[in-house]
Design brief:
The chain has helices spanning about 40-55, 70-80, 145-150, 160-170, 180-190, 205-210, 220-235, 275-290, 295-310, 320-340; strands at about 5-10, 15-20, 30-40, 60-65, 85-90, 100-105, 110-115, 135-140, 170-175, 200, 215, 220, 240-245, 250-255, 260. It is an alpha/beta fold. It has one domain (about 5-340): 3-Layer(aba) Sandwich (UDP-N-acetylmuramoyl-L-alanine:D-glutamate ligase). It has a 9-stranded mixed beta sheet with strand order 5-4-1-8-9-10-13-14-15, with helices on both faces. It has a 4-stranded mixed beta sheet with strand order 3-2-6-7. A two-stranded antiparallel sheet has the order 11-12. Helix 1 (about 40-55) packs across helix 8 (about 275-290), helix 5 crosses helix 6 (about 205-210) and helix 6 (about 205-210) packs across helix 7. The chain is globular, with a radius of gyration of 19 Å.
Amino acid sequence: MTRRGFICAGCWTTDRIKLIDRWPAQEELALIENVEQQGGGSAHNVGIDLRKLDTNMPVSTVGIIGKDQDGDFLLNQAVKHNIDVNHLHRTEHSSTSYTDVLSVVETGKRTFFHFTGANDLLTPEHFNFNQRQEKILHLGLLSVQANMDAPHADGGNGWSAVLRQAQAHSILTSIEMVSIDPDRNRELALPCLPYLDYLIVNDHEIGAIADVPTIQFGETNVQLCIDAAYKALEMGNMQLVTVHYPQGAICVLRNGELHQADALQVPQRYIKSSVGAGDAFVAGFLYAVHEQWPIAEALKLAHRVAAVSLGSATTVGAVTSVEKCRAIAEQLHLEFTLSNP
């Protein structure tokens, strides 16, 4: 059987994106300049980005949302983008997960306040890979879904159980993490590594997994990210480990190869928010891997999609087709270069 497409599973949440004039100290006032509602969570963001990159790419999902207005909104978003929602379950036992995303207008930096809600009810029993024809499972978010995070008697957790089941059905696997306490991140991620094909994380998360101080004095240490990626590779069975950070990304392969690519610089005027940039990078990279592009080209596409995503205050608003993302990103990079000789 020739496999094609993605299962983007796990976290579905409503993002309430609030653009603020500054980040206040405790008990100080900041002004909200704009409020938008958008879907969020790794399953929503990566799934819709993939569909926007290539409208012929099959994408399905597994997750839980509430029977409420937020759940209606998320379901409509998925249907609008032609994501297969046959396994997007709805529950009366909890309201839909939501995240308040506070994004500072001047910097684009964002802070998240998350209510886990219905996502806590997702379990490995909601997954059935029999007769599935998709090629890659992208699964997340570790640390914000109680039943999936819970330890199992075999030393694993719900995430590792689903990944193991997917691999048993010849589906390639990828996880998504979130930057939380490093010890907790490591605890949740380590049981997953034997059942992963692709590990795509940021500089904070690879440091947590490998127990390497990749952030020093508030800045990314690229060499330590490389060291941590190789260490993580030895700890699991991944084909590759990719680490993205503000200045670029690296990818190390099972055969020892190292690839490195700088991020594209874009004019400040274009940047509305960085809220969806990480997921956009993941979507671009996974799309290229799915299509069997060389790793160097996969990193280039990932950076281009991430750069384009900066043009919207919402998670998926600016992402468009592969060819358009290439053209927009290159034009933005050219404008930045010409204005900053």
